[in-house]
Design brief:
Elements (H helix, E strand, L loop, with lengths): L1 H20 L16 H8 L3 E7 L14 H30 L2 E5 L4 E6 L1 H8 L4 E6 L7 H5 L3 H11 L4 H15 L2
Antiparallel strand pairs: 1-3, 1-4, 2-3
């Protein structure tokens, strides 16, 4: 009998977990949400947020591989990417102007930086020409970390100082740190 009771308890727990995972409203989530990074959704709930609108239509620059010189390839890639971005971003740019949000276009990755609220976010994510909305959080670097010598400089310094006495080593390290901070 205890075995049957434990099976019933396990079944009840499993049923409760499955029921908790199903949305209470029974309504499916809005499809545009799948195109938005979770961080952007969370930040937009608190007000304006910066995000990157990555367009679905990306330029094909593979024909550049068949060109002869590096200059020809560079000119082809620049022309293709910038013209493609101007063409595919035009409609979205007009929409952003009508919304009154801050925005800046980028042609290399065919994306647009936007600062907007939750309603702008939802409207942009619902567009067919938008592939994804990515987070663009402000990141600050700890001042102590920014002033520390790079790990590569430290390894190089270690390799160069082997075989020196303590005075020579200290002098060399001071010079290395000065050079690294230039």
């Amino acid at each position: 009998m205890p075995r049957i009771q434990s099976s019933i308890v396990i079944l009840a727990i499993a049923t409760a977990l499955v029921a908790a995972a199903i949305p209470a409203t029974g309504a499916p989530p809005e499809p545009w949400r799948a195109k938005v990074d979770p961080w952007v959704l969370d930040a937009a709930a608190a007000g304006e947020v910066e995000f990157l609108v990555f367009l679905a239509d990306q330029a094909d620059v593979s024909p550049a591989a068949g060109l002869g010189s590096k200059r020809e390839k560079g000119e082809y890639v620049y022309r293709t990417l910038s013209e493609h971005a101007a063409r595919t971003q035009a409609s979205l740019s007009r929409t952003l102007d009508r919304m009154g949000v801050a925005w800046q276009p980028f042609w290399v990755a065919n994306m647009i930086w936007v600062r907007g609220d939750a309603s702008a976010l939802a409207a942009l994510a619902a567009r067919a020409d938008v592939a994804h909305l990515y987070a663009n959080p402000h990141v600050t670097l700890d001042a102590a970390t920014a002033e520390a010598p790079d790990a590569g400089v430290l390894r190089l310094r270690s390799a160069r100082t082997s075989g020196r006495n303590a005075a020579q080593d200290a002098s060399f390290q001071d010079a290395s740190i000065r050079d690294a901070n230039l």
